[in-house]
Specification:
heterodimer; A: about 500 residues; alpha/beta; Rossmann fold; 2 domains; six-stranded mixed beta sheet; 20 strands; about 30% helix; B: about 350 residues; mainly alpha; ABC transporter involved in vitamin B12 uptake, BtuC; 14 helices; about 75% helix; disordered N terminus; disordered C terminus
Amino acid sequence: MTEDKRAPTVEMVEITKRFPGVLANDRVNFSVTQGEIHGLLGENGAGKSVLMSILYGLYRPDSGQIYLHGAPVQINNPAKAIGLKIGMVHQHFMLIPNMTVAENVVLGFEPPGLVLRSRDISSRVAQFAAAAKIKIDPNAMIEALPLGTRQRVEILKILYRQADVLILDEPTSVLTPQGIDDLFTSLRALRDQGKTIIFIAHKLKEILSICDRATVLRRGKTIGTVEISRTDENELTEMMIGSKMVPTRRAKKASNGKLILQGEEITAINDRGVVALTGASFQLHAGEILGIAGIEGNGQTELVEVLTGLRRPTSGKIMLNGVDLAGISPKAALDHGVRHIPEDRHQRGIVLDFSVMENLILGDHEQPLFKGFLSQLKYRFIRRFVDQRIDEFQIQTPNRETVTRSLSGGNQQRVVVARIFNRELTLVIAAQPTRGLDVKAAEYVRRKLIELSDQGVAVLLVSADLDEVMALSDRIIVIFNGKLTATSDRPTRRELGLLMLGETKDRS
Amino acid sequence: MITTPTSAEKKVVGRSIVWLMLSPVIKIWPELAAIVAAFLVGAIILVVTGHQIGETFAYLFRGAFGSRLAIGFTLTRTVPLIFTGLAFSIAFKCGLFNIGAEGQLQVGAFAAAWVGFALPPLPPLIHISLALLAAAIAGGLWVLVPALLKAKRGVHEVVTTMMLAHVGILLTRYLVFGPFKAPGWIPHTPRIAASAELARIMPPTQLSTGIFIALACALILYWFLWKTSIGYGIRAAGLNPHAAETGGVSVTRSIVVALVISGALAGLGGAGEILGVFRRFVEGFSPGWGWDGIAVGLLGRLHPVGVILSAFLFGALRTGGMAVARATPVPLDIVVVLQAMVILFIAAPKLMKILKRRGEKE
């Protein structure tokens, strides 16, 4: 027995997990003690999610052993994990929309008896919520709740199942700055009650402000575990990516370029027929990066779709160099030099089962550059062209014929970005361009956006990542509830956060 | 300078030759396994129903490949299956399930027959071309309404093509029993003009030059799908309509083009039967080539070359099955069972894959 009075709650020893072609975890050691918030840090693909999926019983390790309170355990499935009081909040929530908060929380673990007394369960759930300092109405319908609140329901769900070890997979990605504060308050309360919390993240600031200790993974290996009080951002960054990296900063430019895009009172409805965008007006100049900040689901998707020809606005004008783009086809938008980095890479960005080559010409396959006599694709030229692109954009792929599905997320996004440069362009609509990418890949995409703006291309950057918007944009507009609000020249995080929640400027 | 290969080099060369010979087999092992498994199930059914396995399979094989004549019959039945297999494949490449090829085949066949008997004798090349064109147009038109409904309104094509298939079958039946019935008690139309006939190339079997038309269609379809930008758009729309749309592909246009070509190919399949085999429209001339095209396309992995191979297999099964039915008490239905088993074993692994992928997401 060790002398440390805090014996590890969970200890994972020499965990190895291999997927075809990938060594996801290479003899990883990881341990957490009771009553701590432990950060698990690493780039995308470093093996964090795989390691936690092993702990939660979703994957079985090829070798290695898990100890719980010092005793070896086999966790073959999530049910076993729940039985061992381990709970996990995934990035994608698993809630039933047309049931109440309380009903979702007790689902599968209802109190005995044939009749479910809704008053009983909602008061029980309210107790759990109060103990965890979670603000929630147990009787609210899930479908009426914003994403951030749904996350609280997921946390409640695992607390209700008596979990002692809570695994949170990138919990802050759906939250506003204020929402993050609330989450951290709850996590601290839970820690003080003796719960053990594993916090997966790739944002250093969050790890630094909430965690007691952190373990860094890099390329499937444990790099080390550090006490947060004895480390700083630089050390963690170095552990994470192996070399110091300065976040992109750029000198703000005055918008003296030519007016490229002017949105005039654009109104649009979403797929459910609800007004999602009301009277959106803005201007975008050549060489300018205009940031659209906002919590997801406030109309940015519809704005992007309207600008790229994917959605017909119900009213308003979209003037691009004096031509109205409202209601044109996506192909016509492309032909007008509007390029698009879609927010959902797998849904809109690439055809997963196409080869890298085929994806690299998507959107330009009807161009004389690639298309010849009888609509034949000029494969001889395309092959050379694509090989050059793969080289230039450092797309890590065995060859151009490789199925794009087998590439990592960062390399898939490089394909999407490389494609933008296929022909003359005047405007780039970049929607969540770095979502899910590791530090290096995200940095690469940001550099490319800056490069484009330096070449005089107008860039509209829609991002949920406030740091990204603030670092890249010359101007920032906040979108809330389908409305655009301009911000001051150099808005603070707090100002933006309040606007994103719909507070008016005068109250901030 | 010439050096003699070392033993290690020889080994590598030897291995690569074995690999070269084996690699196509390895690549299509799921299909081969499905065929073997189908025969195993067929054998079990034969045993359970009290038939001789060895005798049955021997007749099956001999009936399909045992003589020059047998091969001629097998090839004759391969031709319509190539057409309908291609028809199924191009629609499926666009993510569409054209289940109504049988109806498109029937109306195409009737159109070809009509051009054959209603027009005065013409130079053969012109007459045949007109008949083929009429069949392609009729088949294409027959699927145009489902195509437009799918593209504009999202109406599911399985329902509409299936319903229209029956309309097509019944319509041609009406035409051949009614207005276009030739004198006599058999429900068939007048014979087509000699100038519209496709020449027989392996008498006394009915194998005609239609087989070259079928092979040419497979070749053209391959070129169209993989070498042109329109085919590229169709494949993109089939694999991910959202990404295709974002990339400027008109998904609605792709749907219409893919389905109309699918219908035209099925119609050509009907024309091949009329101009090459029957020489007139005969009620019930098709034992269900259109429906069988689904299995042919799936087993052929929606690839023209695969379609040719699997059409040959299914043609052989049918021919051999008829020999079995003639020589033994085993009914022809055993062939249907074998076909169904192949589909099941081919579809099952694909389903497993989809389910597995879904499982990993959760």
